[in-house]
Amino acid sequence: MRKSWNTLSAFLTSYSICSGFNLMLDVASNLDDISKTTFCIPYRPQVEGDDPIEESKRIIPPTFSSQNYDLENGRELRFEAYRVAWRRCLDRMQEIIRDLQRPTVKAVVQEALSSYTNILPGLPHPELPVISLLNPGLGTSFMDNITTELEANNSEVDLPTSVRSLVIHLYPSDLPNLSTGMRVIISGFIEKDEREDVKRKPGTSVASYNILYLAAWYKSWAKFVDDPQPNLVVALHDFEQFDPLVMQDVFHICSTQVPQLPLVFLLSMTSPSSNYLNATYSRSTQSLLRLRTFSAPSGIHILQEIVIKTFFDIDFEPDIMIGPAILEYLQDYFTRYNSSIDAVLALLQLVHLNHFTADPFSVLVHQSLDAGVLSQMQSKPFLEMLKARVALLSDKDDAMDIDDWSSLTTASVLTTIDEARSKLYLRARNIRKAFGVMFRIQTVLESNGHKGIEWSLSTDNSGRVCNVLLDILRGQLYRDVKRLGLIIKKLNYDELRAIVDSLHRYVFTMPVQARSEEQEARGYMAHYVSQLPDGRPVSTPEIAAHFSDWITKYLSDKLLPLDDVDLWDIWYTGMTPFPSELINPSTRASIISGLLRPHEFTEDLEKTAVRERPVPRPLWELPDTSILFKRYLDSGKMINVYDWYESFKSVLDTQRTQLLEAAASNGTPSSPRKRGRKAKIKQTLHEMTEEEEEKWRIEAQARFIRALHELDHLGFIKHTGRKADHILRTVFDVDDEE
Amino acid sequence: MRRNGQVAFQEPENSSEEGVEEVTDESDSGDDVAPSSPQKAKGKAKEGSSIIVQTAFDAYFTYNKPGRGQTSSNIFSQLVLPLSAEEYRDAIDSTLKNSRTLQPSLLKEESRDYLFSRFTCELEEGFNILCYGLGSKRRVLNQFATDVCSKRGHVVVVNGFQPDLNVKDVLNSIESIPHIQDLELSSTNVDKQARRIHDFFASHKTHLYLIIHNIDAAPLRATKTKSILALLGQNPRIHIIASVDHINAPLLWSSSETSSRKKDEIVPGSIPSRGFSWLWHDLTTLASYDFELAFADRSSLSGAHTGGARKRTDTLAAQNATAMSETAASHILVSVTQKAKKLFALLGKQQLQAIEAADDASAGNLQQFGMGYDVMFASARDGFIATNETALRALLGEFRDHNLILSGPAASGGGEVLWIPMRKERLANVLRSLDTQ
């Protein structure tokens, strides 16, 4: 009775707090209120109209291994540098993506707008135009581009008359059933009407889900906008997730009103299979539709396009160059897990963020710091560290000499950095040039039916080019260069001429800086062009041999690895791996190792740099849930709960004995035990009164239920009605420790 | 495990006759650090002799062999009496008092600060954060909400694990933010509401931090809810920080939802995209899930199983049927007549005696200690409690309605048995308080 009164009073107190006067009074304790499902903590800016984040400083997160030589405002500066570098890279990539999308977008818009202008004559009944859009890779921006084009009045598409259209967007959750779905479609269009709302008498108008309502509205609206026949486009996102039963009725209803009501359905599909409609919808439904299918570019081809044009194109210089480890991961992730552009962008953004987080020196990416900033007292550790690194560069024998680097002046350090930067960028440019040259030669070779150096550019989705890029970054392309030289030697006049022409164009259309560096190459190309005059086939072997020698030397000179340059790690990610757990985590492994080896999570990773194999803990030292989980792993696919409980309880009994023993000896439980004392403890255990025994039993049961419910919460248990009080295992991993 | 369970099960039976042997028996099990199961022992022996190590795949096929699984026929709910809420709480309290909890290195102050500043940076760079790993992440994320997010924008904390959570609650809670309240809040349709919130944050420069505990919980799994959250999650000024516990939680989202990118700025009137742009973080806290499971029915094995609305009525019914607490019993007893109390005392004393006589209180099944209806009627007539059968039925009716007295067919022979579904000491307490009155 007394207990219940306590509970009641506790409840009343908590109630008075939660219903109480001030939300902000004590937020932390308030969040523990079990009677509320959501909590709101309003933001109170210090100054009215203050802009919370734009005003506050945005900084890069600190590095985990606390590098104590960072500049005072280093994290802020690095964030700035990150923003600049990433913005440039992102803009470039978005431009590439737009280029990739353009042809398809244009074709789709054209089709949607002209759906009702050139109908096949002589059809038995009018068909409902449906455009199915396969877009497995280009993400949401693709659909956005299409709909903005559709809604824009001044679209680029050439049509006989300017046709405007209204677009509404529907998601799978909008169409749970037919009447709601029709209502959403109809009200979606009517809400787009710019005219003032007309008051309707409720008794006289048709129901809001009736297609005739839309038809009537359309008639008056078309008159108002003064357009011959604007189209009504319904964009269905994630079409595979719409209920086919609902959709087939929607199609049926809508097809009854065409062509008076010019509806066009735009289906956005995320799966690459092109016959989803054929497989899912019945023939009678399909016969109502006039289906046109478009597919956006997809597959490894788009990844190649992005990587080549961003990192290996002479027209663009990224601030941060990605290394082979990142490129390999990118390729692997794209081909295996998620071939979408959005994922590629997210991944590269994380690469940039990571690069600027990891090293305080990355603040030097864009420009060397002001000498004034460096001479400040707070910047001393940074400067010292920088000097030490620069001094190490000049010292080839790796022997650090204190006098050596303390004598360096700030100005000389800054010059070294500037030199290193331009050297690295030059080398990166050279790689791009060399790749461009090889790429063009290979293109010509393949177009003439040669295998060439087997980059297989013409066959899409081969993914070979990514491997070539990897070889370039690792500096392993000599074999291809040599081979290219041999092939060139054997070419006939026409082929040689085509290659020389292509390269001539290339070196003369490079951006200004790159062109000025290629004075010699331009001279050579002009020479070869003059050697191979138009229309007059000359004997080519000598020219070809000469050209081959030159090109081999040229390429070998250009293709030098980036990580030979001093201080390369400021601008180049090298072999730094991608933190893959950020986007592709192993949640299951994490939970299971948390259950099996909880003590390993308590170790400080910083302190134990070299980890030896951890000693497995005895079962009774683990938390209850872990004990129960170990027993779970020991069992068959079906577990009898009672037996599980008994085996759990026996471990708890052991635990209790051990703890009592430890308390008695006041030492570690694992110390060598004496037989006599143990017997005494047994004695005390045995002497436990019946009441205590009962209490212990209840405690064990409560702990069992608690652990069982936790495992249930984590999803390890499937309840079954097949056998009384049995559960099914859902996980069949084995404990690696054993 | 099976054999182990059976051995353990037989122990109490032995204990009544051979107390001495039991002690030696227990000392054995105390000696080896943990009683190992036969299968485990076999596995070890195998490993010693061969280089082939069993993998998860092997385990799957081993355990899913055709044929019946071999388990014993013990039934937990018949052999062990469910705990009442108070018993459970007392027991767990005493456990928590004695045990020490593990503190992962991740939660030390400096690593937590590091983690929080990483979270902030990533959130501002257009990602949403999803925390996985073993242990309740509620405390850490709440701390992140109060210490970091509340200084940067509005914060809404959502307890997804609460079974009566509704997406409407979430939206209403967001709309209780002062500036949004100024808007015209006409429509109460969730879609419109979500769209309105989205538009508000797209056009205003304030930020919203949405902390969702257990976004994998049943109330938030529905497609409708998911699409609303996906809409909010793509707003550049709404940041979601969520936690998941279920091992299969990653299956909740398609790869395009997981990886879709937030736009830097939303053009007013444009069509919002949907998705989450998750970044995953391992946040193993090893903390217990007591708060998350506060709603679980501790008297039922499947009490924590998230099965939607149906589950709740089930557990309510189950609670009434089995778990009878002292408080509940005393409440019922206060409101019945003197005669009825006497009848209850009669049955209770009888049952208590039977339990004590059996000398094996832990065996659980209370029906065996019940009282035959005929015997009861006779003793009730002797004690002037009920002179005829109708009166007795009337007295019992009240108790039966409240499940304080249960009846069932007798185990041996025909007839009806009546018993009180209460553990020995609980029953004794109730009877004592009845006596003092």
Automatic annotation (TrEMBL), chain A:
Source superkingdom: Eukaryota
**Origin recognition complex subunit 3 winged helix C-terminal domain ranges (all copies):** 588-732
Asked whether the keyword Flavoprotein is assigned, the reply is: no
Which subcellular locations apply to this protein?
Nucleus
Q: Which residues form the Origin recognition complex subunit 3 N-terminal domain?
A: 33-364
- GO molecular function terms noted in the UniProt entry: DNA replication origin binding
Any signal peptide, and if so, which residues?
A: 1-20
- Cell cycle recorded as keyword: no
Q: What is this protein called?
A: Origin recognition complex subunit 3
Which source organism does the UniProt entry give? Agrocybe chaxingu
UniProtKB/TrEMBL annotation, chain B:
Question: Residues annotated as region Disordered?
Answer: 1-46
Q: Which residues form the Origin recognition complex subunit 2 RecA-like domain?
A: 111-283
Set out the biological process GO terms recorded for this chain's protein.
DNA replication
Q: Which GO terms describe its cellular component?
A: nuclear origin of replication recognition complex
Q: Which UniProt keywords apply?
A: DNA replication, Nucleus
Name the residue ranges with Acidic residues bias.
14-31
Task: Extract one GO molecular function annotation from the record.
Answer: DNA replication origin binding
Q: Where in the cell is it found?
A: Nucleus
Segments forming domain Origin recognition complex subunit 2 winged-helix: 365-425
One Pfam short name: RecA-like_ORC2
Do you know which PANTHER family this protein is assigned to?
Answer: ORIGIN RECOGNITION COMPLEX SUBUNIT 2
Provide the function of this protein: Component of the origin recognition complex (ORC) that binds origins of replication. DNA-binding is ATP-dependent. ORC is required to assemble the pre-replication complex necessary to initiate DNA replication.
Its assembly, as annotated, is: Component of the origin recognition complex (ORC).
UniProt lists the family membership as follows: Belongs to the ORC2 family.
Q: Write the protein's name.
A: Origin recognition complex subunit 2
Name the source organism. Agrocybe chaxingu
